[in-house]
Amino acid sequence: MKYVVLIHSNPQPWGHPTIDFTEVGRAIPAAEREAMGKEFDEMLKELSASGELVSGLALDAPSTTRTFRWEGKRPVSTDGPYAESKEQLAGFFVLDCATPERAEELAAKFAGPGDVIELRPEWEF
């Protein structure tokens, strides 16, 4: 079954990896952040090799967003993200896991300083 790992964060200024741009992430010594980055990259290589990593993307700043809403009989476009919130969607990964437990185990590894991780099963249609 496929799962989406959604990474919500509030980097200031916006940037990736988010650990380098969040207040809590910048409080971690640079050498430790670098080691965490290498560990994360190694995890992605392992997931890619196992076939569990389907895809992943880092997203540009919320200020670059165009939002489309249905008004009356047509869509209307506006600048900026849909939701006014502290954390914004910073990126996502799609995983293909044999069990929900495996997906939860992997999602926990995506959690980093200053991030909120959401794991959601894909709805196939």
UniProtKB/TrEMBL annotation:
Highest taxon of the lineage: Bacteria
SUPFAM superfamilies: Dimeric alpha+beta barrel (SSF54909)
InterPro entries in the cross-refs: Dimeric_a/b-barrel (IPR011008), YCII (IPR005545)
Domain YCII-related: residue ranges: 1-109
One Pfam match: YCII
Gene3D superfamilies, A to Z: Dimeric alpha+beta barrel (3.30.70.1060)
Signal peptide start and end residues: none
Family (UniProt): Belongs to the YciI family.
Protein's name according to its UniProt entry: YCII-related domain-containing protein
Organism: Kribbella kalugense
